[in-house]
């Protein structure tokens, strides 16, 4: 399915004047890069806005088979399944280094030269361009009303809202919501699977990773706009990356403040995605008890004694 | 007998799109607006009132431009005592280690955690420059354990920001034990952060305490 979309993106780019073969090769190479960067962006960008109450799920999510054979976890948001922690920690280190050296400074420059209201308008435009992809997932999830809201929002905000600059629809009571393939999979009972930290792309679960590739491949605006090879696509991607990073600046500072930033990012990501999924299923979160000596980690307390024995000699 | 004319089927795509958009706008849009909010479990007006008053106070303190940094810090400290169940949170963030920590370590941890958390969260709430807290509803999980939903708006907040508060208590006496922002519970995240740090130190809680003292200082320095 991803392969098919690569072909599709290349085909779109061939309508341009350059020789077909060279264009095709260049198209493939940059498709790979674009897949990584753009899909990442799309998935982060879409769900960050205000939420609407979820419609109750009609189908029982338990019926579907899990995508990967993960051990049973009560709440994936509260207990991380991270068998690749060694790789992930290294990858996290690389990404944070890249952020400090390149992406962070660009975002800070952008934040320094633009006032917040201007940045909010940019975020609105980027968000609006993600609405068709949200609408697609609303349909796949079997949520006609959410689809109606998303479609109406896109039509209203693209016209009266001046190409998405202003969220006029929200003022009419049509609050935006995110939807992506990761959520769609989850809505049909697919479990998140192992946690992955992919360099540049950031935190993912196996489910969200596959979902993000599909988000990119099926994004209606991306397909019509010619992907990232066109000026429109490249601008959207570039602006989107900076916009996401700028909006996440508070989160990056929160990571800086944490004792173990890797675990903090993993925990926050897991909770965030599960909460995003609950918007589509209408399920209620199971929370840990505050009154007992509590533990949300999957490890039994007895493991502490074993590991501390290896500590001080 | 009349049949639809072929020209109807061959309507131009733009026209069909317009028709579709109209249907979406008028029909589905209106439908979703008319749909009543999801029926929630019982609400708790007293818990809502508590959050409205106390959490608003914390936000007001931080948004007050007339107070000096030192003044803000002192007021924030008092406001936190009125808002949050500090001992309960302190115990919770230790996770499984709450069972094995020594009394001496607990004392040192409590002080270090309090300083660290105040510095960190004062900076973080400051970042959002919100001004007005509005309670939008609440859900009683069980008696004495309520999630109060709010939005924070005004100031430099573009879209109203949904924030949920988990409060415990009863009657007129409530305390916040956890705060959720974009789906992320702060105390739960903090617990995973701390437990992992102690795990990686071979179960040595002193390593976490030392690091909290360092980070607390660093956070002050950056302010």
Task: Provide structural commentary.
The complex is a heterodimer of chains A (313) and B (223). In chain A, 62% of the residues lie in helices and 3% in strands. By secondary structure, chain A is mainly α. Chain A has a two-stranded antiparallel sheet. Chain A has 14 helices and 2 strands. The radius of gyration of chain A is 21 Å and the shape is globular. In chain A, helix 1 packs across helix 2 (20-45). Chain A has one domain. Chain B has 223 residues and is of the alpha+beta class. In chain B, 57% of the residues lie in helices and 18% in strands. In chain B, helix 3 runs antiparallel to helix 4 and helix 6 packs parallel to helix 8. The model of chain B is unreliable at 4-9 and 21-40 (pLDDT under 50). Chains A and B meet through helix 4, helix 6, helix 12, helix 13 and helix 14 of A and helix 2, helix 5, helix 6, strand 3 and strand 4 of B.
Topology:
The complex is a heterodimer of chains A (313) and B (223).
Chain A: H1 2-14, H2 20-45, H3 85-113, H4 116-129, H5 131-140, H6 144-159, H7 168-171, H8 181-187, E1 195-198, E2 202-205, H9 206-218, H10 220-225, H11 231-247, H12 249-257, H13 261-281, H14 302-309
Antiparallel strand pairs in A: 1-2
Helix pairs in contact in A: 1-2, 1-9, 2-9, 2-11, 3-11, 4-11, 5-6, 8-9, 8-13
Chain B: H1 6-9, H2 13-34, H3 45-63, H4 69-83, H5 86-92, H6 103-128, E1 132-142, E2 145-153, E3 161-170, E4 173-181, E5 184-185, H7 186-200, H8 205-222
Antiparallel strand pairs in B: 1-2, 2-3, 3-4, 4-5
């Amino acid at each position: 399915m991803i392969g098919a979309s690569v072909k599709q993106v290349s085909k779109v780019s061939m309508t341009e004047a350059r020789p077909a073969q060279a264009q095709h090769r260049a198209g493939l190479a940059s498709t790979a890069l674009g897949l990584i960067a753009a899909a990442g962006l799309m998935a982060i960008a879409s769900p960050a806005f205000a939420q609407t109450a979820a419609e109750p799920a009609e189908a029982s999510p338990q019926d579907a088979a899990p995508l990967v054979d993960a051990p049973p976890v009560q709440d994936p948001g509260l207990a991380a399944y991270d068998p690749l922690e060694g790789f992930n920690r290294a990858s996290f280190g690389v990404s944070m280094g890249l952020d400090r050296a390149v992406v962070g400074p660009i975002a800070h420059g952008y934040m320094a030269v633009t006032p917040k209201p201007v940045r909010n308008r940019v975020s609105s435009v980027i968000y609006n361009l993600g609405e068709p992809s949200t609408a697609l997932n609303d349909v796949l999830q079997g949520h006609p009303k959410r689809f109606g809201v998303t479609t109406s929002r896109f039509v209203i905000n693209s016209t009266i809202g001046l190409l998405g600059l202003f969220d006029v629809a929200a003022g009419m009571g049509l609050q935006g919501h995110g939807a992506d393939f990761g959520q769609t999979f989850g809505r049909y009972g697919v479990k998140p699977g192992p946690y992955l930290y992919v360099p540049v792309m950031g935190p993912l679960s196996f489910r969200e990773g596959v979902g993000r590739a599909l988000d990119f491949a099926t994004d209606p605006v991306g397909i019509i706009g010619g992907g990232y090879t066109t000026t429109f696509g490249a601008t959207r991607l570039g602006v989107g990356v900076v916009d996401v990073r700028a909006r996440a600046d508070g989160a990056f500072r929160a990571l800086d403040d944490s004792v173990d930033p890797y675990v903090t990012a993993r925990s926050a990501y897991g909770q965030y995605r599960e909460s995003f999924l609950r918007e589509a299923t209408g399920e209620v979160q199971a929370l840990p008890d505050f009154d007992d000596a509590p533990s949300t980690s999957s490890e039994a307390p007895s493991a502490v004694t074993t590991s501390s024995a290896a500590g001080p000699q | 007998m009349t049949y639809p004319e072929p020209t109807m089927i061959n309507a131009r795509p733009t026209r069909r799109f317009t028709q579709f958009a109209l249907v979406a706008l008028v029909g589905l849009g209106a439908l979703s607006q008319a749909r009543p909010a999801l029926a929630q479990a019982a609400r708790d007006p007293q818990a809502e009132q508590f959050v409205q008053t106390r959490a608003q106070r914390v936000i007001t303190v931080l948004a007050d431009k007339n107070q000096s940094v030192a003044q803000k810090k002192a007021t924030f400290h008092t406001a936190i005592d009125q808002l949050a169940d500090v001992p309960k949170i302190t115990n919770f963030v230790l996770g499984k280690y709450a069972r094995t920590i020594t009394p001496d370590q607990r004392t040192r941890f409590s002080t270090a955690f309090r300083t660290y958390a105040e510095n960190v969260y004062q900076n973080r709430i400051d970042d959002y420059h919100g001004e007005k807290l509005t309670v939008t509803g609440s859900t009683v999980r069980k008696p004495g354990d309520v999630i109060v939903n709010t939005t924070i708006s005004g100031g430099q907040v573009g879209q109203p920001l949904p924030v949920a508060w988990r409060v415990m208590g009863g009657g007129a006496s409530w305390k916040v034990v956890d705060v959720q922002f974009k789906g992320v519970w702060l105390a739960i995240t903090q617990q995973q952060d701390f437990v992992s740090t102690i795990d990686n130190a071979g179960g040595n809680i002193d390593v976490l305490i030392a690091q909290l003292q360092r980070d607390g200082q660093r956070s002050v320095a950056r302010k």
